[in-house]
Amino acid sequence: MSFHPLGHVAPPVHLQFDDNRLLPLLFGEHDQHLARLERELGVSMVSRGNQLIISGAEDSVTVARQILTGLYQRLKRGQHLDKHDIDAAIRLSRQDDAPRADEGAEPNLFGAGNLGDGTSIKTQKRLITPRSAAQAKYIRLLHDQELVFGIGPAGTGKTYLAVAVAVAMLAKGTVDRIILSRPAVEAGERLGFLPGDLKEKVDPYLRPLYDALHDMMPGDQVVKRLTTGEIEVAPLAFMRGRTLANSFVILDEAQNTSPMQMKMFLTRLGENSRMAVNGDLTQIDLPPGQKSGLRDALEAIENVEGIGTVRFSNRDVVRHHLVQKIVSAYDSRDRKKTSRSASPVSESNKGVDG
């Protein structure tokens, strides 16, 4: 959905909130949350006691009302709210499958998810809710499908959400263990030149997976489960020859696998197991001329029944707001390069016909 501040101006909308204690959290320190919504949606907001008056273009006022209502319900559930949730709500409101006013849907998407909607994840340390429509779809697929591909740029939550679902399933007893893997050192797994024992060699490349674990479980629990083998973090080469049953298996940075490595990994899937394969096809570090195992797998098996695929885009980036702009800038530059290289008239031929 796009907003047009100069569109049809609707009568002001009056919102009334029944718990004054939540309003400082909803409005933000010095009303910074409201100011953010005003800037992004092109509306004007005035608070009077427990009332909020929203003025502006009809579509923008409707979306502002939906966002604030959804976020207020989130606070009533005792959930956290910060500026990132405001940005997520705005992002969701602009996506094609966001609720529309004429559908009569009061949005449960705008950061106000609950444990019954299939998109929220409860771990020991936090309740995690989707921050884009693609994230919501991804979480649902991770619960429903045995094999899910998450494709898209950095910062879209692919690995973080997969680890969150895995931790939640381990806590419930749905799976017996979590196995986290990624290619070490640009797919070739050339570890010999690095100092230290094997663990010291590979740990730096697996650090993002450890970080995600610590964000969802107490540190002592992470250490204990790593010791008992309930959680295993290992380079991709360690998967060869194994059958991974009763497990939630995650392959990160899958774009840096070879086709042979990817086939090997996918065929490790055992009984009562789930597998998430994540990667960014614009960040392939393989030697020139070598095909990515992730690209090869998508071409071969993406449409096989029982396999789910979510393709994230720049608008799903949920890190610092500059990250989304950086990703978009690189993509725009690369598209221009591709367009120029595909031009039928080369620089050397210009002027021949003119």
Task: Please characterize this protein's 3D structure.
The protein has helices at 23-27, 32-41, 58-76, 83-93, 133-144, 158-172, 185-189, 198-216, 219-228, 259-266, 293-301, 321-341, and strands at 9-16, 43-48, 51-57, 121-122, 127-128, 147-151, 177-182, 231-235, 247-251, 274-279, 307-311. By secondary structure, the protein is α/β, with parallel strands linked by helices. It has a six-stranded parallel beta sheet with strand order 8-7-9-10-6-11, with helices on both faces. A three-stranded antiparallel beta sheet has the order 1-3-2. A two-stranded antiparallel sheet has the order 4-5. The two termini are 45 Å apart. The model is unreliable at 1-6, 97-109, 111-116 and 345-354 (pLDDT under 50).
Low-confidence stretches: 1-6, 97-109, 111-116, 345-354
Task: Return the structural class.
Answer: alpha/beta
Radius of gyration: 23 Å
**What portion of residues belong to β-strands?**
15-25%
How many H/I helical runs? 12
| Overall pLDDT confidence | 81
Largest sheet: 6 strands, parallel
Shape: globular
**Share in helix:** 40-55%
Order of helices and strands: EHHEEHHEEHEHEHHHEEHEHEH
Q: For the terminal residues, how far apart are their CA atoms?
A: 45 Å
Number-wise, the strands total 11
Looking across the biggest beta sheet, what order are the strands in? 8-7-9-10-6-11
